[in-house]
Amino acid sequence: MDPGDHRLCTNMQSKLKRQVNASTAAASFTAEAGQSYYFRTKTQVDSGRIQLVPVDPAEAQILLANASFSTFQIKK
Length: 76
Description:
Elements: E1 4-11, H1 17-22, E2 24-31, E3 39-43, E4 50-54, H2 57-65
Antiparallel strand pairs: 1-2, 3-4
């Protein structure tokens, strides 16, 4: 990814519109050349809403070791 300001967003897929609206989150960050950035979703149990939160690189390595592979698409 190029250095500079970026926006990251996520939503959970659901056939129920109410769940989709409550399950969308976004975060902004400034990327620097040669750096890696890690984010994860955090669900608020009482409301079902999600957040994108940054993850410390050391913790990210532990989480990645136990995670499944996923993909993304850049929206145009």
